[in-house]
Write a structure and sequence with these properties.
Elements (H helix, E strand, L loop, with lengths): L1 H9 L19 E4 L10 E8 L5 E9 L6 E8 L32 H14 L5 H4 L4 H13 L7 E7 L7 E5 L5 E15 L13 H4 L6 E14 L7 E14 L5
Antiparallel strand pairs: 1-2, 2-3, 3-4, 5-7, 6-7, 7-8, 8-9
Helix pairs in contact: 2-4
InterPro entries: DUF8094 (IPR058407)
Protein name: DUF8094 domain-containing protein
Organism: Streptomyces ureilyticus
């Protein structure tokens, strides 16, 4: 996602590029949650940073040690829509958090695979198949459904837009036990968006932010790939999960050559 940001910016005219400025997170406004791990287990920890007036803006970060390089990298950064939805993380007597395997239904009511499919359904159908069944109604879930509802009709009678699931490049997940017995789960998903004209003679002109991938070449169809990070709270017993934040980046795009 970060590489895509740089690529997108480099595709813009120089006058439209923003100047990069050094930045950092304020540790005095950050809660860090470190799980206990045994030898051989992948090491990671979570952090929640706060900013803005009265710390109303929150972001969940995941830092993971890379197996080959032994370097720590930030592998997820997701903005939350409402800090009040962030659950209290369970801590042991030593102040450590507890990592949970969210891929198993033994630990959470909705495993990561179910959560990912529900998110993808929010984009693909507006949540009609599984999204609204798995997730409670929240601003975050409604925003994904709104993306579907608005984007699929943007061309009117001149074209179509379809969202589809794609192979998840980063299938790993990170989950912490909450004080209520459930889990805070961070995971990734990948989806595509295919824009196509309704009949011959029409073409789609790439937008300014698409130029890094598509240049300025019109095409009768374009397919965009989005890589996204999602955060949800999931109960341990049967019940709906709550999607509390997601962040997406366009990470690829390609068009189809016009017929001669």
């Amino acid at each position: 996602m970060s590489v895509a940001d740089y690529q997108q910016d480099e595709g813009l005219p120089k006058a439209d590029r923003e100047t990069y400025k050094p930045w950092s997170y304020d540790l005095s406004s950050t809660d860090v949650y470190v799980p206990r791990f045994t030898a051989g287990q992948p090491k990671w920890f979570a952090a929640v940073t706060y900013s803005g007036k009265n710390d109303k803006d929150a972001r969940v970060l995941i830092m993971a040690e890379q197996a080959k390089t032994r370097r720590w990298e930030m592998v997820a950064a997701v903005d939350l829509d409402d800090t009040k939805q962030l659950p209290k993380i369970a801590l042991d007597v030593g102040g450590y958090a507890s990592a949970i395997d969210a891929t198993s239904a033994k630990n959470v009511a909705a495993p990561v695979g179910v959560l990912r499919d529900a998110v993808l359904d929010n984009f693909a159908t507006g949540g009609d198949l599984s999204g609204k069944k798995v997730f409670a109604t929240t601003k975050t879930s409604q925003q994904q459904i709104k993306v579907h509802d608005k984007t699929t009709v943007k061309f009117g009678s001149r074209g179509t837009t379809e969202f589809s699931s794609a192979a998840t490049e980063f299938p790993g997940s990170y989950a912490l036990k909450t004080a209520g017995g459930g889990a805070l789960v961070v995971f990734a998903h990948t989806h595509t968006q295919r824009d196509a004209v309704a009949h011959s003679g029409l073409q789609i002109v790439p937008g300014k932010k698409d130029r890094a991938w598509l240049k300025d070449r019109p095409s009768p169809s374009f397919t965009y790939t989005f890589t996204c990070s999602d955060v949800a709270t999931v109960p341990a017993t049967p019940g709906k999960a709550t999607l509390i934040g997601y962040t997406c980046r366009r990470t690829d795009a390609h068009g189809m050559a016009a017929a001669s």
